Predict the structure.
Amino acid sequence: MKIEKTVSELAEILGVSRQAMNNRVKSLPEEFVEKNEKGVTVVNRDGLVKLEEIYKKTIFEDEPISEETRQRELMEILVDEKNAEIVRLYDQLKTKDQQLQEKDEQLRVKDIQIAEKDKQLDQQQQLTLKAMEDQEVLKIELDEAKAEVEKEQTKGFFARLFGR
């Protein structure tokens, strides 16, 4: 069953003047407007749906629709909604994958930084150990030098003078 309405019928259903409806129909794309067998301008089903969206009113409420058609339209709506959800989730997954790649790169850089810090820490520990060893050697040498000076001071004047 082909569903179409004339400009006069639409003006009455939507509660606007025939002239206003005629102007609105003229502004619709060509695929929504046809001429019937009497040569009268009519709006097809797709055009009626578009007008329902524009005027926020129902045009089809008294039009009988078969159960099969209603079920098919409902299924199409559900499929469209599911497809939109799938696209949204897919985009979300792509974003998450990109974030994970960025996170992996950050972790790689951190691993390099940690390895460099470990190397620097090891070098610092080696330098500290070397400095402590040098300090011990210097302390021993200082103790020996002090002992020698004390020995020299305990010798008498003539022993020091003649080197005995």
Summary: Helices lie at 7-14, 18-27, 45-55, 67-154, 157-162. The beta strands are 4-6, 33-35, 41-44. The chain has a mean pLDDT of 86. The radius of gyration is 49 Å.
